[in-house]
Design a protein that fits this description.
- The complex is a heterodimer.
- Chain A has 5 helices and 5 strands, in the order ββαβββαααα.
- By secondary structure, chain A is an alpha+beta fold.
- In chain A, helix 2 crosses helix 5.
- Chain A starts with 8 loop residues before the first strand and ends in an 8-residue tail after the last helix.
- Chain B is of the alpha+beta class.
- Chain B folds into 3 domains: 155 residues, Aldehyde oxidase/xanthine dehydrogenase, molybdopterin binding domain (Aldehyde Oxidoreductase, domain 4, 2-Layer Sandwich); 193 residues, Aldehyde oxidase/xanthine dehydrogenase, a/b hammerhead (Aldehyde Oxidoreductase, domain 3), CATH 3.90.1170; 316 residues, Aldehyde oxidase/xanthine dehydrogenase, molybdopterin binding domain (Aldehyde Oxidoreductase, domain 4).
- Chain B has 19 helices and 26 strands.
- A 7-stranded mixed β-sheet of chain B has the order 3-5-1-12-9-10-11. A 5-stranded mixed β-sheet of chain B has the order 7-15-14-13-8. A 4-stranded mixed β-sheet of chain B has the order 16-24-25-26.
- In chain B, helix 9 runs parallel beside helix 18 and helix 17 packs across helix 18.
- Chain B is globular and about 90 Å long.
- Chain B starts with 19 loop residues before the first helix and ends with a helix.
- The chains are: A alpha+beta, B alpha+beta.
- Chains A and B meet through helix 2, helix 3, helix 4 and helix 5 of A and helix 1 and helix 17 of B.
Chain lengths: 168, 793
C-alpha cells in the first residue's frame, strides 16, 4: 500500500548551550529527538502516558516531560538535559546531593528526578519536606522508596544556599 | 617500597556508591541506549483478546509498507515452546509454556501473535498497524476461583479444570486434629492481589548473529545472563552454549521480572539469524503491563486453631495460585517452596498443613516478584496473629511474643520442609520497634480517641517477619523441583599494577554491588577501594553464576568473593615467604601486607607480591604465575533475616481514606557491609510492600481483558504518600557465611504489606471490621465502613 511521503519540519533547538538543527517528522517527540537525533541518552523513556517523569528536562526554564512535547513545538527553545547540568566536570549540587545521600539505585528515574529538582529549587530554594514530596509527585521511582531522594534534595537545597548539609 | 596506609575497614561503612557518577550525569548504558550498525527494529503485534482462535493473520499490507524488512507470525517460527525450569516438587505439573509467537490460539491480552521488523521503529510500528488479525474471541476467565469451577473456559487440553498442579506440605492429620482440639477456631479468606512489577525501565532485547562463526550475541534485560544463555542454548535455539554470548547492560530495575526467559528474547535471536541483521526490541509500558511476568495473585482460605491464652496450635491453609495463561520460568516453585514452606513465619506452630493449587487463567504469566512467595506467606501468618489477637482480646504484640521461636532453638526446623532457620532472636527486634514507636502511649491515645468518638480512627499494625534469603543450596533447591544448579561465582585477579578486578556471576540492577562487593574485596585483600573494579553482566568473561534475585547477591555471591580473596591471600603469603626467604609459617598477613614475624621491617605489600606473581622471574617451585582465583560457591544453607515493622495509620471514616502517619522498621539482616545501601534497600522495599497494601493491583475483567494497561490505571506509589520511615537494626550474624550476612533486598517488601493492613484493620476493629482485602483504597474502605455501620451513602 502506498503511503504519502511525510513532510519534515525544520527545527532549531539550543540543547545544553549548543544550537542543534534537524529536519524532523511532525510527530517526532522531543524525547526521541534528544535521544536518537542528538544521541543524548541520559533522558529516559519509562512510560507511554506522561506518568513516570523519567524524560523530564528543562525547557525555557521550566521542567517539562519531553515525551509530551513534540520536537516541532520546541523549535527555538533552550533546553537543558542531564548531560548539560555538570559544568566543567564539576557536579551540580543536586547531582552531588543524589550521590551523597544515596538518592538512586538503578538510576533510571534519576535524570528526570534531578531535572525536576532543578525546577523546584529555582522556584523554591528552601522547600519543606512536604513541598519536596509534592514537587516530585510526577516522577516515579520504584527503587528508593523516595526517602533518600527527599534527603538528596534537602542536601542540594542546603548546599545551594551556602549552608552545610544537614545530614543526620 | 610503597607502604600501604593503615586503612579503616570498609565493611560496615556507609560509603557512597562507586556506580553513581555515571547515573547522575546521564551516562548510564541501558538497553535502549544501545545502537548497533545495520540494526533493525521490531514491533510486536499482540492479541487484544484474552482468549481467541487465530483464524488467520494477513500480513500482506504490512509487508508493502516503507522500510519493512520482514513480517512473521507463529506459523513461520519452528522453535520449541519456552522451558519451565522450576516445577512444583513431587507432584504432577500439567506443563504448558508459550511458543515464541502464538500458534493457533491466543491465551491472554498481550500474547504476541506477529512481529514486524523494519529499518526504523516508527516504520515497524506503522507497518504493524496494517496487520489484519482474524481472531475469533472465545470465553475467557481471569479469576482462579472461577477458573477451577466446572464449566469454566478451558485453556489447555492437558490441564482439566485449568489446574496446573495440586501440591501440599506439612502435617495433614495433626493439623486436622489440632483444629478439632483447639479452644478457638478462626476461619478467614484472604486475597493477595496480583501485582505488576513495574521496573522504571521496561524490558528490551537486541540480538546479533554472525553467520561466519554461527555465534549469537544478545543484549537482554536480564537479572541472570548466564541463566538466559543456558536456557537459550539448551532448550530453544539448540546451539551450543559457547556460541551464545549474553550481555546485560545497566538495568533500570527488575524486582524479579527480568529473571525469566521471555518470548521476545527468543524472537529477536530467531529474527537476527533469519534476517542476517541485528534486531532490537524495546518494550513499551503498555506492553510491560500486559506481557511482563506479574506477581502474587493468591486466594487463600485459612483455618486457625489457637488457645485462649494466645498460642496458635494449628494452621490449615488452602491457596489457589493464579499462574496466568502459561507457566513462566520459575512459576512452579514460587507458590510452593517459597510460600508454603515459609508459612510458620517466626512462630512455633505445632501443626501446619498447606495445600496449593496452581491455576491457569487468561491473564499474563505470574512468576517471582520482589519477595516471591515469602510476602504471600508473611501476609498470611501476620494476618493470622492479628486475627487471633482480635478474637481473644489480647494485644497483638503479646500474641506474637507468646508464639516466637526462642533464641536457643536455632538452627530451627519448622517441620514443613524448609531448610532450618540459621539464626534468630526475634523478641529484641519486636521490643526495639515497640519502644521506637512509643507503643504504650499510642495504645493509650487510641483508647482516648475511640472513647471520644473521633472520626479519624487510629490504627497500629505490627509485622514480625522472617524470610528465606540467599536462595541456593543446589541439593535442596533441586529436590524442590528447580531444574539447574544454584551456586554463585567470583573471580578475583590482582593485576601487576596492583589493581584488582573482581568478576561476579551476580547481576546488579540497583543494589550497589559495585560498591559493596568492592568493600568486601578491599578489606579482604587490604587494598584501597579505589583499586577495585567489579565486572559483571557479560557471559563472555564472567564465571558461570546464577544472577541476582532472592536476596542472594551478598550472601552467596559475596561469599564467593571472600573465598577467592582467601585463596589469593594464601598464595600471596607463600610467595611473600619465598621473596623474603623465610618459611610461610613465619609470615604474618594483615591489611594487605606480609610481614616476617618479629621483623616488622621485612615486609612485602600485596602490590609487590602481585607484580612478582605476574612477572614470574622468581617463583617457588610448582607455583603458577599470577594472583588469579575463582570460586564457585554452593552454600550449605539459606539465610533467614527477620525483624518487626510497625505502621501507624489514620482512617477517615467519612471518606475511607487511610493515611500512613509513622512507620518504624527494625530489621536484622545479620552483619551489614554498607548501612547506606541497606537503608536504601529497606526503604525501597517498604514502599513496594506498602504500594500493594495501599493502592496497587493488576485488574482484569472477568473475561481477562486487562484494565490496568498503562501507568494511568495501574497505581504505583508516589513520594507524597509517605512520611519519613524510622529504621533501626538488631544484629544476629548468619553462621552460614564468613561475612555473617543474611540479605536485605526483599525484607522491606515482605514486612510492610501486613504491617499496613494490620494497622488499618486495627483502626477499623471498633466498627466490627476485622479484615478487608487489599489494596486498601479509599472507596474500598469507605464501602466497608458503610457496610459495617449501616449508614447509607
Amino acid at each position: 500500500m502506498a503511503t504519502e511521503p511525510i513532510t519534515k519540519q525544520h527545527v532549531s533547538i539550543t540543547v545544553n548551550g549548543q544550537k542543534r538543527e534537524a529536519d524532523v517528522e511532525p510527530r517526532r517527540l522531543l524525547v526521541h529527538f534528544i535521544r536518537e537525533d542528538l544521541g543524548l541518552t541520559g533522558t529516559h523513556v519509562g512510560c507511554d502516558t506522561s506518568q513516570c517523569g523519567a524524560c523530564t528536562i528543562m525547557m525555557d526554564g521550566l521542567a517539562v516531560k519531553s515525551c509530551t512535547v513534540l520536537a516541532a513545538q520546541a523549535d527555538g527553545a533552550e533546553i537543558t538535559t542531564i548531560e548539560g547540568l555538570a559544568k566543567d566536570g564539576e557536579l551540580h549540587p543536586i547531582q552531588e546531593g543524589f550521590w551523597e545521600e544515596h538518592g538512586l539505585q538503578c538510576g533510571f528515574c534519576t535524570p528526570g528526578m534531578i531535572m525536576t529538582t532543578v525546577d523546584l529549587l529555582q522556584r523554591n530554594p528552601n522547600p519543606s519536606e512536604s513541598e519536596i514530596r509534592h514537587a516530585i509527585d510526577g516522577n516515579i521511582c520504584r527503587c528508593t522508596g523516595y526517602q533518600h531522594i527527599v534527603k538528596s534534595i534537602q542536601y542540594a537545597a542546603n548546599k545551594m544556599a551556602g549552608q552545610p548539609s544537614g545530614d543526620d | 617500597m610503597v607502604a600501604v596506609e593503615q586503612q579503616q575497614p570498609y565493611i560496615g561503612r556507609a560509603m557512597k556508591r562507586k556506580e553513581d557518577p555515571r547515573f547522575i550525569t546521564g551516562r548510564g548504558n541501558y538497553m535502549d541506549d544501545i545502537v548497533l550498525a545495520n540494526m533493525t527494529h521490531a514491533a510486536i503485534v499482540r492479541s487484544p483478546y484474552a482468549h481467541a482462535t487465530i483464524r488467520g493473520i494477513d500480513t500482506s499490507a504490512a509487508e508493502q509498507m516503507p522500510g519493512v524488512v520482514g513480517v512473521f507470525t507463529g506459523e513461520d517460527i519452528d522453535l520449541p515452546p519456552l522451558p519451565y525450569a522450576w516445577q512444583a516438587a513431587g507432584v504432577e505439573n500439567n506443563i504448558n509454556t508459550p511458543y515464541t509467537l502464538a500458534k493457533g490460539e491466543a491465551h491472554w491480552v498481550g500474547d504476541p501473535v506477529a512481529v514486524v521488523v523494519a529499518e526504523t521503529l516508527e516504520q515497524a510500528r506503522d507497518a504493524s498497524d496494517m496487520i489484519e488479525l482474524d481472531l475469533v474471541e472465545l470465553p475467557g476467565v481471569s479469576d482462579a476461583e472461577k477458573a477451577v469451577q466446572p464449566g469454566a473456559p478451558q485453556l489447555h487440553e492437558n490441564a482439566p479444570n485449568n489446574i496446573v498442579f495440586s501440591w501440599n506440605c506439612g502435617k495433614k492429620e495433626e493439623t486436622e486434629q489440632g483444629l478439632r482440639d483447639a479452644e478457638i477456631v478462626i476461619r478467614q479468606k484472604l486475597r493477595n492481589q496480583r501485582m505488576i512489577a513495574t521496573p522504571m525501565e521496561n524490558r528490551g532485547a537486541i540480538a546479533q548473529y554472525a553467520a561466519g562463526t554461527e555465534e549469537f550475541t544478545f543484549w537482554l534485560s536480564s537479572q541472570a545472563p548466564h541463566v538466559h544463555r543456558l536456557v537459550m542454548a539448551a532448550f530453544i535455539l539448540g546451539v551450543p552454549e559457547q556460541n551464545i554470548r549474553v550481555i546485560a547492560p545497566d538495568l533500570g530495575g527488575g524486582f524479579g521480572a527480568k529473571i525469566f526467559m521471555y518470548q521476545e528474547y527468543v524472537l529477536v535471536g530467531w529474527l537476527a539469524r533469519k534476517l542476517g541483521r541485528p534486531v532490537k526490541w524495546i518494550e513499551t509500558r503498555s506492553e510491560a503491563n500486559a506481557a511482563t511476568a506479574q506477581g502474587r495473585d493468591h486466594i487463600t482460605e485459612l483455618e486457625i486453631g489457637a488457645t485462649r491464652d494466645g498460642k496458635v496450635t494449628a494452621l490449615r491453609v488452602h491457596t489457589l495460585a493464579n499462574l496466568g495463561a502459561y507457566l513462566s520460568t520459575a512459576s512452579g516453585g514460587i507458590p510452593t517452596t517459597l510460600y508454603g514452606r515459609m508459612l510458620a513465619g517466626v512462630y512455633k506452630i505445632p501443626a501446619i498443613y498447606c495445600e496449593v493449587q496452581g491455576v491457569f487463567t487468561n491473564t499474563a504469566m505470574v512468576d517471582a516478584y520482589r519477595g516471591a512467595g515469602r510476602p504471600e506467606a508473611a501476609y498470611v501468618i501476620e494476618r493470622v496473629m492479628d486475627l487471633v489477637a482480635n478474637e481473644i482480646g489480647m494485644d497483638p504484640a503479646e500474641v506474637r511474643r507468646r508464639n516466637f521461636i526462642q533464641p536457643d532453638e536455632f538452627p530451627y526446623d519448622t517441620g514443613i520442609g524448609m531448610l532450618p532457620y540459621d539464626s534468630g532472636d526475634y523478641e529484641p527486634a519486636l521490643d526495639k520497634a515497640l519502644q521506637m514507636i512509643g507503643y504504650d502511649e499510642l495504645r493509650a491515645e487510641q483508647k482516648r480517641r475511640r472513647e471520644s468518638g473521633d472520626g479519624r480512627l487510629l490504627g497500629i499494625g505490627l509485622s514480625s517477619y522472617v524470610e528465606v534469603c540467599g536462595i541456593a543450596p543446589t541439593k535442596y533447591i533441586t529436590s524442590e523441583g528447580w531444574g539447574a544448579g544454584l551456586f554463585e561465582s567470583a573471580n578475583v585477579k590482582v593485576h601487576l599494577s596492583g589493581k584488582v578486578v573482581v568478576t561476579t556471576g551476580s547481576m546488579p540492577h540497583g543494589q550497589g554491588h559495585e560498591t559493596t562487593f568492592a568493600q568486601v574485596a578491599a578489606d579482604k585483600l587490604g587494598v584501597p577501594i579505589e583499586d577495585i573494579q567489579l565486572k559483571f553482566g557479560d557471559t563472555l568473561g564472567t564465571p558461570f553464576g546464577y544472577g541476582t534475585y532472592g536476596s542472594r547477591s551478598l550472601t552467596v555471591g559475596g561469599e564467593a568473593i571472600v573465598r577467592s580473596t582467601n585463596k589469593i591471600v594464601d598464595k600471596a603469603r607463600r610467595l611473600a615467604a619465598h621473596m623474603l626467604e623465610v618459611d610461610v609459617e613465619d609470615i604474618e598477613w594483615s591489611n594487605g601486607k606480609a610481614t616476617v614475624k618479629g621483623s616488622p621491617d621485612q615486609v612485602k605489600t600485596i602490590q609487590e607480591i602481585a607484580l612478582a606473581a605476574a612477572v614470574p622471574v622468581n617463583l617457588p617451585d610448582g607455583m603458577e604465575p599470577f594472583l588469579d582465583e575463582t570460586t564457585y560457591y554452593d552454600p550449605p544453607n539459606c539465610t533467614f533475616p527477620f525483624g518487626t515493622h510497625v505502621a501507624v495509620v489514620e482512617v477517615d471514616t467519612t471518606t475511607g481514606n487511610s493515611e500512613l502517619i509513622r512507620y518504624v522498621a527494625v530489621d536484622d539482616v545479620g552483619n551489614i557491609v554498607n548501612p547506606l545501601v541497606v537503608a536504601g534497600q529497606l526503604q525501597g522495599g517498604i514502599v513496594q510492600g506498602l504500594g500493594q497494601a495501599m493502592v496497587e493491583g493488576a485488574v482484569y475483567d472477568d473475561n481477562g481483558q486487562l484494565i490496568t494497561s498503562t501507568l494511568m490505571e495501574y497505581a504505583v506509589p508516589h513520594a507524597d504518600q509517605f512520611p519519613m520511615f524510622e529504621l533501626d537494626h538488631t544484629v544476629t550474624p548468619s553462621p552460614v557465611n564468613e561475612l555473617g550476612v543474611k540479605g536485605a533486598g526483599e525484607a522491606g517488601t515482605i514486612a510492610s504489606t501486613p504491617a499496613y493492613v494490620n494497622a488499618v484493620c486495627d483502626a477499623l476493629s471498633p466498627l466490627g471490621i476485622h479484615h478487608t482485602d487489599m489494596p486498601l483504597t479509599a472507596p474500598r474502605l469507605w464501602a466497608a465502613i458503610q457496610n459495617a455501620t449501616g449508614d447509607q451513602a
